[in-house]
């Protein structure tokens, strides 16, 4: 990313969100470090990383929509997208629908894989995009911000991933509760 800038970050984040195992903690943590070195700019980094996350999620959604489970079983082992991860995401999606998309976007290990079962289940694309954007924002913001604050110690993000997980789950849970409250309040 230091050599190719935002373009490299975009493709790395898009690949991560399209189920290629590149940890976002590394990508965004290093991007945050580059912010601390005045190579990247915070808001530009944040916007591009969010756009890349949504772009990669759309690719995964389309793979699920057009390839489905046979595609997963045939090629999933090459990208660490195994039957267990798919089954976990599928169960959450079946039980919670759109809320699964929103909440899973903030859960390490599952966050990138929820898009595929959403495509398989033919979840409405417009709703999928909205929930993906909402779920991508806190994760991206937190990791970019933490990387920029940590500076040369940005690798600590990997070590303290569980703290970010707890914070993000709380943020997503509050967002989900507010969403449901407003939705139910609007009904007669």
Automatic annotation (TrEMBL):
Annotated family: Belongs to the DedA family.
GO terms under cellular component: plasma membrane
Residue spans crossing the bilayer: 42-63, 128-150, 162-181
Lineage, highest ranks first: Bacteria, Bacillati, Bacillota, Negativicutes, Veillonellales
InterPro entries with a match to the protein in the record: DedA_domain, VTT_dom
Protein location: Cell membrane
Keyword vocabulary terms for this entry: Cell membrane, Membrane, Transmembrane, Transmembrane helix
Principal subcellular localization: membrane
Membrane topology: Multi-pass membrane protein
Native species: Anaeroglobus geminatus F0357
Domain VTT residues, every copy: 22-148
A Pfam family hit: VTT_dom
Protein name, UniProt field: SNARE-like domain protein
């Amino acid at each position: 990313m230091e050599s190719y800038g935002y373009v490299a970050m975009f493709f790395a984040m898009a690949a991560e969100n399209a189920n290629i195992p590149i940890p976002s903690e590394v990508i965004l943590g290093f991007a945050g470090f580059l912010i601390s070195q005045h190579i990247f700019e915070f808001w530009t980094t944040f916007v591009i990383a969010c756009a890349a996350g949504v772009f990669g999620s759309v690719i995964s959604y389309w793979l699920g929509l057009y390839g489905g489970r046979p595609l997963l079983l045939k090629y999933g082992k090459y990208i660490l997208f195994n039957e267990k991860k798919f089954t976990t995401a599928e169960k959450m999606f079946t039980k919670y629908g759109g809320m699964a998309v929103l909440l899973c976007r903030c859960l390490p290990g599952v966050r990138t894989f929820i898009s595929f079962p959403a495509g398989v289940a033919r979840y409405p694309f417009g709703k999928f995009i909205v929930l993906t954007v909402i779920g991508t924002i806190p994760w991206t913001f937190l990791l970019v911000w933490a990387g920029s604050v940590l500076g040369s110690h940005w690798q600590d993000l990997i070590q303290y991933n569980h703290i970010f997980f707890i914070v993000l789950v709380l943020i997503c849970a509050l967002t989900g509760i507010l969403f449901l409250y407003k939705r139910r309040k609007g009904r007669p």
